[in-house]
Specification:
8 helices, Chorismate lyase, globular, alpha+beta, six-stranded antiparallel β-sheet
Length: 255
């Protein structure tokens, strides 16, 4: 599945949920799109779905889609230009919506962009903090990502959930998961929302991979952020570990 198809499907799911209440269809479509924006399906300046594509995916007319986009344009959420389509504006601070990785410039206070690239989706029997957090899971799905933080430094992360979810995530493919909130993907694709998370920070020497990817010194410790996600009935669901340089170049980490 392409990232575009996943975005369309997410909007359709939000529309299905919202359309059960009262409200004009154009308002419901606009709110469905806005919720998906808030869930991290697009980054600033990313192209939004075309009007015809949305009209085919939703049980509404093309005019309704156009009216919804006009509302979002008036609110400054999207910008529409001839021959360039509809794009998410920089007015929407999607990075402030991140649960785990949020950075700001210490001088200006502005949020820094957090762009992610998935470089592997694998199954593993390895043990670690994830196996302690999810003791009933024997085999795990591991999603490894590389992050660019405001084009200033890199972060590595690995997310672990049960291997029972490997197939639907592998079917989506690595490219479809780039720059997208996995929390939203789990909720919309697996139907398992992350309702809360806990965090802990520690320090340790870097591995060879981290030295190569993060461009850090072997004698400098790494900051390690562990994020544990919980779903319905406060059941443990996901474990994610981020490794990052300790010298953040005038950057504040907000957890």
């Amino acid at each position: 599945m392409s990232q575009f198809e996943m975005q369309i499907r997410a909007i359709a799911r939000q529309y299905e949920i919202l359309s059960k209440g009262d409200g004009q269809k154009a308002n419901v479509v606009a709110e469905a799109i806005l919720r998906c924006v808030e869930n991290g399906y697009w980054q600033p300046n990313d192209k939004m779905p075309a009007e015809l594509s949305l009209a085919k995916a939703l049980p509404v007319s093309l005019g309704t889609i156009q009216a919804a986009y006009r509302m979002l344009t008036a609110e400054g959420v999207v910008a529409r230009r001839r021959k360039d389509g509809t794009r998410l504006t920089s007015q929407v601070d999607v990075n402030s919506l991140n649960w785990h990785l949020r950075f700001s410039d210490m001088e200006t206070g502005a949020s820094l962009t957090c762009r992610s690239t998935v470089f592997s989706i694998t199954k593993t029997h390895d043990s670690g903090g994830w196996s302690k957090f999810l003791p009933d899971v024997a085999e795990f799905t591991c999603i490894a990502r590389r992050w660019s933080i405001g084009e200033r430094f890199q972060v590595l992360s690995r997310l672990y959930i049960s291997a029972e979810f490997y197939e639907p995530l592998a079917e989506l493919g690595m490219n479809a998961l780039n720059d997208i909130s996995l929390r939203a993907v789990f909720s919309d694709t697996l139907r398992i929302p992350t309702l809360r998370a806990t965090h802990s920070i520690s320090f340790r020497p870097p591995t060879e991979e981290e030295v190569a990817v993060l461009a850090v010194m072997t004698d400098r410790p790494l900051m390690v952020l562990e994020a544990c996600g919980y779903t319905y009935r406060d059941q443990p669901f996901s474990y994610q570990v981020f490794s990052m340089p300790t010298e953040l170049r005038n950057v504040r980490l907000m957890v």
